[in-house]
Amino acid sequence: MTRDLENITDLELIESVKGGNTNAFSALVLRHQRGLLRMGLRFVKDLDTAEDVVQEAFIKAYEKLDSFEGRSSFKSWLYQIALNTARNRLRETRRETVDVEDTHLAVGPSSETGLVHTAVSELLNKEVEKLPIRQRTALVLRVYEDLSFQEIAEIMDCPYDTAKANYRHALLKLKEAFHDRQDLKTWTLETGGFFMELNPLKEAEG
Amino acid sequence: MRPHARTDVSTLLKNTDEVELPMDPAYYKRLHDKIMAKVTEKSMEAVPVRLRMDNLVAMKKTVSIRR
Questions:
Q1: Residues of A in contact with B45 (CB under 8 A)
Q2: Helix orientation angle between A74-96 and A22-44, rounded to the nearest 10 degrees
Q3: 0.80 cut: is pTM over it?
Q4: What 3 state SS string does A129-189 have?
Q5: Measured distance CA(A105)–CA(A28) in Å, rounded
């Protein structure tokens, strides 16, 4: 009897790939390519480059699959590979270009919220881009990928508390960036209270 | 303050997120096929037997016994 793909775990697929079934790897690609593309895009900004990152990450994962022992989840392991690949691409790009105009984070305005929203987006872009890479990584994985700190720690290859601290520091730096911008501060209070939630840092627990 | 009006920094970041992934399923099929075309050209690298975790554990035990 065949089982639905959704009911087969990553580990079962990996065992099947190790046994010579390349189709099982195809299932892993289908399962994870979208998430990897989204994460890659946040770092490299360009869809073509993000595609290359995803492709390279899957190829590396396939080549190294025999060394995967399941001590972390396959997803964490795969994201770690993709993250390192994206970082390498970024380093290469930065060596090749001095065009600072291109260095912006992939967050921005949505049309319905107008100029202040644009200003908030631009400030966030700038400030997130200025974060040290480990803080930025923790922030991206937590906020946009909704990963747990345990998963983030596995991907960043660091202790749980370090992953959490990196995320907290990133949030505090964003708060500081808004501190002197009364205009934006008022807007964020009206639309939801950026600062009210920063102090308890409730979202940092998890 | 309005009840439930508060949001957090995560929400603010998400609300200003402009990353837009392709929606067309054909895009993901093409990406998948491109990846698999490359993968089928590759082979898995065999892990040296001595570096496998179970062997390392066994080696450690052997060393301990010898001591």
A1: 63-64, 66-67
A2: 40
A3: no
A4: HHCCHHHHHHHHHHHHCCCCHHHHHHHHCCCHHHHHHHHHHHHHHHHHHHHCCHHHHHHHH
A5: 29
Alpha-carbon gap, residue A89 to A86, rounded angstroms: 5
Q: Which residue in A43, A48, A112, A121 has the most chain B C-beta atoms within 10 A of its own C-beta, making it the best mutation to test that interface?
A: A121
Yes or no, beta carbons of B39 and A193 under 8 Å apart = no
CB contact (8 A) between residue A42 and residue B19? yes
Residuewise pLDDT in 10s, chain A (206 residues)? 456 767 899 999 999 999 999 999 999 999 999 999 999 998 898 999 999 999 999 999 999 999 898 888 999 999 999 999 999 998 887 776 644 344 444 444 444 445 666 777 777 888 888 899 999 999 999 998 889 999 999 999 999 999 999 999 998 888 887 776 766 666 555 554 444 444 444 444 44
Q: B31: part of which helix (H) or strand (E)?
A: helix B25-39
DSSP run (H or E) holding A118 = helix A114-130
What's the Cα-to-Cα distance from A116 to each of A110, A113, A122, A128, A194, rounded to whole Å? 11, 7, 10, 18, 14
Strand extents, DSSP E, chain A: none
Long-range contacts of A169-172 (CB under 8 A, 24+ apart): A169/A135, A170/A128, A170/A131, A170/A135, A170/A136, A170/A138, A170/A139, A171/A139, A171/A198, A171/A201, A171/A203, A171/A204, A171/B9, A172/A198
B44 contacts A62? CB cut-off 8 A: yes
